[in-house]
Design goal:
There is one protein chain. By secondary structure, this protein is of the alpha+beta class. The chain has five domains: about 80 residues, Alpha-Beta Plaits, CATH 3.30.70.100; about 230 residues, no CATH class; about 90 residues, Calcium-transporting ATPase, cytoplasmic transduction domain A; about 130 residues, Rossmann fold, CATH 3.40.50; about 110 residues, Calcium-transporting ATPase, cytoplasmic domain N. The two termini are about 60 Å apart.
C-alpha cells in the first residue's frame, strides 16, 4: 500500500473544454489511471486537480491521458493538503499561455476548411460535374469527420463509448452508407460550427471570472533607498512600502503610512462612492486611489490579497455543486445510452416487424442518435451558477457555490444577530456606575484591561473610552473568554470578570429598558460596578428588513443581549426578537426555525460561527475581512444590510435561469425526439437542435452577468 506521505496534490490548467460533457470525459479518463484519487475538474475555471501517487502513475501519464482526448494541458502546479484535507494550493493560477481568439483555434480552422469544401461541393452540383458531386460531398464529410472520429476512438479506448463524437461518427458514416453524402457533409459542418459557437459562448461566460483577476495591476512602485522604482506586484512582501499615485490601482492589501485620499472600493465591495482614508487605514488590492499620493505598507503578498482570494473562491465555488446540478449529472449518465438503445430499436423493429424500408428507418435512427447528447442539459446549471457567482463578486456579494445559491433561493426565514449586524457594531459607553468605594476610573481601567484581547464590539467600545480618558492597561494574566457570558483575567492576583449584568437588579433593568446593554465588573466575586453601552441600528437596517419582507421572508433577531435592549432595538426596526441567547441557544433557535423551512443566519462571522454553520445558509458581514471570507457560506463585503436581499434576489434569478435552461434543453430534445422518429426532421435539424440548444442555454445564463442584484425585478 502506498504511504500517504508519497502522495502529492497537483493542479493543471486544461484548455479546449466547451461543455460539461468535456469535463466529464477528462474526469473519467483520469480516474481510470492507477494511483489517482480525489479528481476534481471545473469547467469554468478550466482546472484539473487530483491526488497522485507518483511511484504508481507519473504526472506525464495524466497529461497524455488528457491530450489523447484532444484537450490541451499545462504543466502541473503543486498543491499541498493538511491532515484535515484542507487545500493549500497557491492562489496564483497555473501558468498558461494567453487564450487565442476564437478565429485562431483549431475548431475555427476546421469550420473554415469544411465550409469551403461544402461550398465547392454544392457549386459542383450546378455544373457539368453534377454527376460526381456526391464524391465531393463525401470528401467534405470525411475531412470534417476525421478529427471527430479520432476523439471518439480516444474516448472509446478510455472506456467511454457513449460520447457525442461517437454518435456523430456513427451518424455521419451511416448517412454515407445509405447514400446521403450531401446531408452527411452538412451535418459534419453544422456540428463543427456548433462546437465553435459552444467554445465562444463558454469563453464569454468565463470572462466574468477572469475579470476579477485582471483588476489587480501587474506592477507597483516600491520605495527603496530613498527612491521608488517599478517592480512586479508578485515580488512584493509584507513590510515593504509602496507608493500609490492618483488613478493607480493597489496591487496588494496594505495599510496607509502617510497621505489621505479617496479610495474607490467598487471592485472589491461594490461600493460606488469613494471612501476617504488616511494613515493607519486598511486598503485592499484592486481598489483605486482617486485623489492624492499615498505611501502604503504591504500587509499581504499579492497572491494572498483579499481580491485574489475572492477570485479564487469564486472559481473554486464551482466544485460546490447545487443539488439540481448533481441530479442532472446523474440523469445525463443514463440518458445517452437510453437514446442509443431507442435508436437501435427504431432502426430494427419497423423493418423486421412490418417490412418497412431499411434506409428510411436507418436514417431516422441516425437522426435520433444526434438527439442523444445531453450537452445543453448538463451545461445549463454550471453556466448559470458561474455567471451568478461572478456577478455577485463584482457587487461585493461573495457566494461559495451552487449549493449555497440553491439553498438561498429556497429560504423561509432570515435570522439576524443584533450587534454588528442589525446595528452599526460600534456601541459607545453611555453610563459608568461604580459601586461604593470604587473610583469610576478604576472601574473602567479594570474592565478595559480584561477586554484588551477581545474583538467584540462591546469590548472595543470600553477600550476606546479608556483610551479617550487617558487610562493605561494593567499587567494581567490568564485572560480567557466565555462566549455569550463574558471575559476574565487575573490582575494583581485577583480574578476580574466582565460579564452580563443580572436583569433582576433595578438599576440594570432601568438601563436595559432604555435599550442599553449592561455589563458588570467583579473582582473575586465582589461587584465593582456597572457599565452601560448602546449601539444604534444601521441606517439601512429598516429598508433591508422591508425588502426581505417584500421577498416573502420571515425575519427574526437572535441576540445574546438582554431582553430590554433587544426589545427596544426590535421595536424600532419592526422585527421580532429572541434575546438572552448563548451560542447554544442560537443553535437551538435555528433548529426550531428550520422546521418551517430554510433558514439563513446573518452574523459578524466571529461570535456567531456556530449559528452560521447550523443554518441552511450562513452569511457573514464584513468588508473583506479574513473572518468574513472564511467563516460562512456567503459574505457581504460592502457591510451594507441592503445587500442581503440583493444576494437573495441574485440567487432566485440564478435558479429561475436554470429552470429556463433545463426547460429549453429538455423541451427541444423532446420535440426533436418525436419529429426524428416520425421522419419530420432529418440529420441536420437534429444537429441544430443539439448544438443550438447548448449555445442558447449558455447565452441565457450569461444574461446574469449584466444583472444588478441591488435592483428589484
Amino acid at each position: 500500500m502506498t504511504a500517504l506521505s508519497s502522495k502529492e496534490s497537483l493542479e493543471w490548467h486544461i484548455s479546449g473544454m466547451d461543455c460539461a460533457a468535456c469535463a466529464r470525459k477528462i474526469q473519467t479518463a483520469v480516474e481510470r489511471l492507477p494511483g489517482v484519487s480525489g479528481v476534481e475538474i471545473t469547467l469554468m475555471n478550466e482546472r484539473l486537480r487530483l491526488i497522485l501517487a507518483p511511484d504508481i502513475t507519473a504526472a506525464d501519464q495524466v497529461e497524455r491521458a488528457v491530450q489523447s482526448l484532444g484537450y490541451g494541458i499545462a504543466a502541473p502546479t503543486p498543491a499541498s493538503q493538511d491532515q484535515h484535507g484542507h487545500d493549500h494550493t497557491p492562489h496564483s493560477q497555473p501558468a498558461k499561455q494567453t487564450e487565442p481568439r476564437w478565429y485562431q483555434t483549431a475548431k475555427a480552422r476546421l469550420v473554415f476548411f469544411t465550409g469551403i469544401l461544402l461550398a465547392a461541393s454544392q457549386i459542383a452540383t450546378w455544373t457539368v460535374l453534377a454527376d460526381h458531386a456526391v464524391w465531393a460531398f463525401a470528401l467534405a464529410c470525411l475531412v470534417g469527420l476525421l478529427p471527430v472520429a479520432r476523439k471518439a476512438l480516444a474516448a472509446l479506448r478510455a472506456g467511454m463509448p457513449f460520447t457525442i463524437e461517437m454518435l456523430m461518427t456513427i451518424a455521419a458514416t451511416g448517412a454515407l452508407f445509405i447514400g446521403e453524402a450531401q446531408e452527411a457533409a452538412l451535418v459534419v459542418f453544422l456540428f463543427a460550427v456548433g462546437e465553435l459557437l459552444e467554445g465562444v459562448a463558454t469563453n464569454m461566460a468565463r470572462d466574468g471570472i477572469r475579470a476579477l483577476a485582471k483588476l489587480v495591476p501587474a506592477t507597483a512602485l516600491l520605495e527603496h533607498d530613498g527612491h521608488s522604482h517599478e517592480v512586479a506586484a508578485e515580488t512584493l512582501r509584507p513590510g515593504q512600502i509602496i507608493q500609490v499615485r492618483p488613478g493607480d490601482r493597489l496591487a496588494v492589501d496594505g495599510e496607509i503610512v502617510s497621505g489621505t485620499s479617496g479610495i474607490d472600493e467598487s471592485a472589491v465591495t461594490g461600493e460606488s462612492i469613494p471612501v476617504t482614508k488616511g494613515p493607519g487605514a486598511a486598503v485592499l488590492a484592486g481598489t483605486i486611489n482617486t485623489e492624492a499620493v499615498l505611501r502604503v505598507r504591504v500587509v499581504k503578498a499579492s497572491a494572498d490579497s483579499t481580491l485574489a482570494r475572492i477570485a479564487q473562491m469564486v472559481a473554486d465555488a464551482e466544485a460546490a455543486r447545487a443539488p439540481t446540478e448533481r441530479f442532472i449529472d446523474r440523469f445525463s449518465r443514463w440518458y445517452m445510452p437510453a437514446i442509443v438503445g431507442v435508436a437501435v430499436l427504431v432502426a430494427l423493429l419497423p423493418p423486421l416487424a412490418m417490412g418497412a424500408d431499411w434506409d428510411t428507418w436507418t436514417y431516422r435512427a441516425l437522426a435520433l442518435l444526434l438527439i442523444g447528447c445531453p450537452c445543453a442539459l448538463v451545461i445549463s446549471v454550471p453556466a448559470a451558477i458561474a455567471a451568478a457567482l461572478s456577478t455577485g463578486a463584482r457587487h461585493g456579494l461573495l457566494i461559495k457555490g451552487g449549493a449555497v445559491i440553491e439553498a438561498m433561493a429556497n429560504l423561509h426565514t432570515v435570522a439576524l444577530d443584533k450587534t454588528g449586524t442589525l446595528t452599526e457594531g460600534r456601541p459607545v459607553l453611555t453610563d459608568t456606575l461604580p459601586a461604593d468605594g470604587t473610583p469610576a476610573a478604576t472601574l473602567l481601567q479594570l474592565a478595559a484591561t480584561v477586554e484588551a484581547g477581545s474583538t467584540h464590539p462591546l469590548a472595543k467600545a470600553i477600550l476606546a473610552q479608556a483610551k479617550a480618558d487617558g487610562l493605561t492597561l494593567l499587567p494581567n494574566s490568564d485572560a480567557r473568554a466565555h462566549p455569550g457570558k463574558g471575559v476574565e483575567a487575573r490582575i494583581d492576583g485577583a480574578l476580574v470578570q466582565v460579564s452580563v449584568a443580572d436583569a433582576a437588579v433595578p438599576a440594570v433593568a432601568q438601563l436595559q429598558s432604555e435599550g442599553k446593554t449592561v455589563v458588570q465588573v467583579t473582582r473575586d466575586g465582589v461587584s465593582l460596578g456597572l457599565l452601560a453601552l448602546r449601539d444604534e441600528p444601521r441606517a439601512e437596517a429598516a429598508e433591508a428588513l422591508a425588502q426581505l419582507a417584500g421577498l416573502g421572508l420571515e425575519t427574526v433577531m437572535l441576540t445574546g443581549d438582554n431582553l430590554g435592549s433587544a426589545t427596544v432595538a426590535a421595536n424600532r426596526l419592526g422585527i421580532r426578537a429572541q434575546a438572552g441567547l448563548l451560542p447554544e441557544g442560537k443553535i437551538a433557535a435555528i433548529q426550531k426555525l428550520a422546521a418551517e423551512g430554510g433558514v439563513m443566519m446573518v452574523g459578524d462571522g466571529i461570535n456567531d460561527a456556530p449559528a452560521l454553520r447550523q443554518a441552511s445558509v450562513g452569511v457573514a458581514m464584513g468588508a473583506g475581512t479574513d473572518v468574513a471570507l472564511e467563516t460562512a457560506d456567503a459574505a457581504i463585503l460592502r457591510n451594507k444590510l441592503t445587500d442581503l436581499p440583493a444576494m437573495i434576489r441574485l440567487s432566485r434569478a440564478a435558479m429561475a435561469n436554470i429552470r429556463q435552461n433545463v426547460a429549453v434543453a429538455l423541451g427541444l430534445k423532446a420535440v426533436f425526439l418525436v419529429t426524428s422518429v416520425l421522419g419530420l426532421t432529418g440529420l441536420w435539424i437534429a444537429v441544430l437542435a443539439d448544438t443550438g440548444a447548448t449555445v442558447l442555454v449558455t447565452l441565457n445564463a450569461m444574461r446574469l452577468l449584466a444583472r444588478d442584484p441591488r435592483k428589484a425585478g
